[in-house]
Amino acid sequence: MSENKGQKTLADLKDESTKKTLADLFQRLAVEQEPEAPDAPPKSMDEYKFWKTQPVPRFDEKDSFKEGPIDAEKTIADVRTEPYPIHSSFEWTTLDLESDEDLDQLYELLYDHYVEDHDATFRFAYSRTFFNWALKPPGWEHNWHIGVRVKDTGRLIAFISGVPCDLTIRGNDIKSVEINFLCVHKQLRSKRLAPLLIKEVTRRVNLKNIWQALYSSGTVLPKPLSTCRYGHRPLNWGKLYEVGFSSLPQGETKASMIAKTTLSNETKTVGWRKMKEEDIDTVYKLYNDWRVRYEISQIMTKEDVKHWIYGGKQQDGKVIHTYVVEDKDTKRVTDFISFYVLPFTVLQNELHDNVGIAYLYYYASETGLGKFIKDEESQELLKKRLKSLVNDAMIEAKKINIDVFNALSSQDNALFLDDLKFGAGDGFLNYYVFNYRAKHIEGGIDDTTNAFSKTSSGVGVVLL
User: Fold this and answer.
1) Which of residues 441 and 7 earns the better pLDDT score?
2) Distance between CA atoms of 82 and 129, rounded to whole angstroms?
């Protein structure tokens, strides 16, 4: 995580390999990958031993193609009915996320073997509530929570997940899934389990007559649909300094850094309040009116909004936090904004045992609705509104002991990231759609400098 004015992080104090793994920690990337700058020259397709066999766009394709599925001829009859062969020491398993035992095993696998920093000082503190929210949305399939166990001991050593995630790409609605949480035990990463997990989840999804999948990576694979950059906003600089996330910039004092990053104690947006269940219909309409701004967005039903944005059964204030703005005269909800929480456990530190991390999620505002996304007057009004909404969301996050507020350059985030003192992170996130060819979508970063751009992105879908 890099901050403004030369502020360094724990990653900056160590060697380059450590810096990359700490960037991975913030990005929550697939375990066998390291982040590359989005302008890193791609390898030839022959070097991608797995991906060159898959229906994904190639780097050398021209822009004259017609957008749509790459392999449109395949049918369920063409899909193998049995799982792919696996090494005799291992066996496939389908995790039962209704089972506390399976949830505990998934927690242990991700805690020990998902993304972490070089010194294993920081670990993601997953919870059952988080798993229930992230892996069990409306329409979730038990069969898409795929693990690999050691046959003799039953120990879980690998995992991959798929959840429903229908998309709109430039006006074309696509039945799709989101693939996430690819994790392989550190000592088994030479066994080529990751490609096998991808093939197996693809097979199971295809058997449901679904042929596209959304996924992300910090690595440049064939071929990114878009690339966004991470931004990080300290809310508790003093604590971040004490756990090693932040170092003291030259010419600054601890007091001056705390003063520069301190927020007001109270929100200022008139009509601001916590979202209620009775707001779901209004938020659903607002979301759908809003998402047409973007070239790629997630299609949500009311049940999806209830789960992803309101929180559904997990509405206990632990994972997803959503606020609305209600017009005091009409009582109409005019805006909503949400963030989710996924803290770190801190090891080997006498002062703190955790770091509170929040991630900006979906939002929408009546400001700018119906206006062309590049309209300058509309963008200025929207910029002012979003700065107010995000600032108040960070104030709410600080109240629940969040120490860092993260946001990508996706959605309309580039309009406020610099003004609200988000430091541009070292990490980039590439978006991919499996078995779908589409022209590049702007991700809110400057093509030349990789700095946050001054205009909105075309990416309206948020990945966990």
Assistant:
1) 441
2) 32
The residue annotated as part of the active site, out of 207, 369, 381, 464, is: 464
Check residue 113 and give left, alpha or beta (phi > 0: left; psi -120 to 50: alpha): alpha
**Where are the extended beta strands (E) located within 263-317?**
272-274, 296-298
Identify whether the C-beta of residue 241 lies closer than 8 Å to the C-beta of residue 10.
no
Q: Does residue 10 contact residue 117 with C-beta atoms inside 8 Å? A: yes
Domains of the chain: 10-27+226-437 (3.40.630.30), 45-217 (3.40.630.30)
Q: Can 263 be counted among the known catalytic residues?
A: no
- Percent of the chain past pLDDT 90, that is, above it, reads 69
pLDDT (0 to 100) of residue 189: 86
Q: Are 428 and 36 in contact (CB under 8 A)?
A: yes
Give the separation between CA 71 and CA 68, rounded to whole angstroms.
9
Find tokens 């994790």 and name the residue: 183
**Whose CA is closest to 410, among 431, 425, 390, 396?**
431
Place of tokens 């690819």: 182
Q: How many CB atoms lie within 10 A of CB 143?
A: 13
3-state secondary structure of 329: coil
| pLDDT tier, 6 (very low <50, low <70, confident <90, very high otherwise) | very low
**Entry pTM:** 0.90
* Higher-confidence position of 325 and 46: 325
